[in-house]
Each structure stands twice: as C-alpha cells, then as structure tokens.
Amino acid sequence: MIVKSWTNAYVGTPFDRFGASHAGCNCWGLVVLIYAEQLGITLPDYAGAYASPEEQAEVAALVAAERADPAWTRVFDARPLDVLLFRRGHLDTHVGLYVDRGLMLHVTADDCAKLERFETGTWGHRLTGIYRHVKAASNGVSGGVE
User: Fold this and answer.
1) How far apart are CA 135 and CA 128, in angstroms?
2) What element of type H or E holds 24?
3) Mean of per-residue pLDDT scores for the chain
4) E-assigned strands of 89-134?
5) SS3 assignment, position 87
6) What does the pLDDT look like over 6-58, one tens digit per residue?
7) Contact 103, 121 (CB under 8 A)
8) How far apart, in whole angstroms, are the C-alpha atoms of residue 100 and residue 91?
9) Cα 26 to Cα 112: distance, rounded to the nearest angstrom
10) What is the rounded CA–CA span in Å between residue 29 and residue 43?
11) Are 4 and 103 spatial neighbours (Cβ–Cβ below 8 Å)?
12) CA distance 33 to 42
C-alpha cells in the first residue's frame, strides 16, 4: 500500500488536549489543522467549548452538532481526507481522517498522531460514519490529494 505523502507532515504530532497545531492537537484539532493546510477549509476548533476531552457527553454534543451541519455529507465511498467518526463507549467522540483503504490518520490521548488500521482491531467495530465536507466535494479536492 502506498501511503499518501500529505500524511508525512502530521505523523508524530503530539497530543494536546485543546490543541489544533503542529505543536500538539486532539483528534478534532488534527482534522482542523489538516483541513486548513491541505484543503484551505477553515473549521471551528471549539476551543473552550468543553471542559476536557474526558467530558464525553460534551464532546459528543459537539460532534453531533458538527455532523448535523449542512457543510458535511455522509458518504459510503471514502476518499482521502474524509472524516471517519468513531464511537468510544456509547458516544460518538473520536474522529480520524481517511488515508487509504482501511487506513486512517488520527491522534489519541495516549499517543501522537499516527497511521492506524480502522477496519479491524480496536477501531473495527466502532466506525459509525464517514463524512465529506461539501467544499472538498465540490472542488473535487479530497480525491486528488497526494
């Protein structure tokens, strides 16, 4: 499998509870950072909108609001940079970015940003949806990122 070169700039980015930069980010912050740099799309960073990432209900409410935003379309044909939504416990609270078949880029509190399989193992049964931003879809950008 050939890993897309855009991932190289983000693998190893450390976890930061409220971050959205190369200095550190949380899972949504990684999406915010990559969308800005790779697609030129500004997403809300939700800084200060929750007390901590451990407040799962608060995070799930933010995820639900973002998912309901008309800027996002649920898709079933994943392309690079589509957002993968995962359940942790009973709530949808984790996101990663689709890289290639079965492979995502994401960050968790116990690790740095990394490439990981999402169709099997820890994440295999937790995927609840794949979402594409309408600006990426209308520009045909997400399919052409290398």
Assistant:
1) 22
2) strand 24-25
3) 88
4) 91-100, 103-106, 114-117, 127-133
5) strand
6) 999 999 999 998 899 999 999 999 999 999 999 999 998 877 676 665 667 77
7) no
8) 25
9) 9
10) 9
11) no
12) 9
Check if the beta carbon of residue 82 is closer than 8 Å to that of residue 142.
yes
- Amino acid making up residue 67: R
Beta-sheet strand order (sheet of 83-88)? 72-75, 127-133, 83-88, 91-100, 103-106, 114-117
**pLDDT tens digits, residue range 29-41?**
999 999 999 999 9
58/62 Cα distance (integer angstroms) = 6
2 phi/psi in degrees, rounded to 5: -95, 120
Q: Taking the mean position of all CA atoms in its chain, how far away is CA 42?
A: 14
Chain centroid to Cα 127, Å, comes to 12
Number of Cβ atoms within 10 Å of the Cβ of 57: 10
- The letter for the amino acid at 84 is L
- What pTM did the predictor assign? 0.88
